[in-house]
Design goal:
By secondary structure, the protein is of the alpha+beta class. It has helices spanning 3-16, 96-113; strands spanning 19-22, 36-39, 43-49, 54-60, 64-71, 75-82, 89-95.
């Protein structure tokens, strides 16, 4: 087995354990290009698509300091703070269950890495 084949297999294994959460199109700023939160064993990312390309922010799982969820009647806002002092990842328009799942996954990955 070649080194590049092993790298590809490792990348596929990491990708298969990632979960993607998409914001509702019914919320402000998400109608045409809904924001996605991707949670994996190594990092949590916020991907905001644009007409040409996308903007991606990520924080390593072991650098996540806190996860704050603000719930409304229908949708939740999520704020993921970094212990490294960088700007937090924020996203709005997620279902309440998805917001809780994001928090639980981050906490689970942090516990598994310790």
């Amino acid at each position: 087995m070649t080194a590049s084949h092993r790298t590809t297999m490792a990348t596929q294994a990491q990708t298969s354990t990632e979960e993607v959460f998409k914001a509702s199109r019914l919320t402000k700023g998400n109608f045409f290009f809904p924001t996605r939160i991707v949670v994996g064993p190594l990092r949590v990312s916020r991907i905001k698509p644009r007409l040409f390309g996308n903007t991606e922010e990520s924080i390593a799982i072991n650098a996540v300091a806190s996860v704050q969820i603000s719930t409304g009647v229908f949708w939740s806002d999520i704020r993921i703070d970094s212990s490294g002092g960088s700007d937090p990842i924020t996203s709005h328009g997620h279902r309440k269950g998805d917001a809780r799942r994001i928090r639980d996954l981050i906490e689970g990955h942090q516990a598994a890495s310790k």
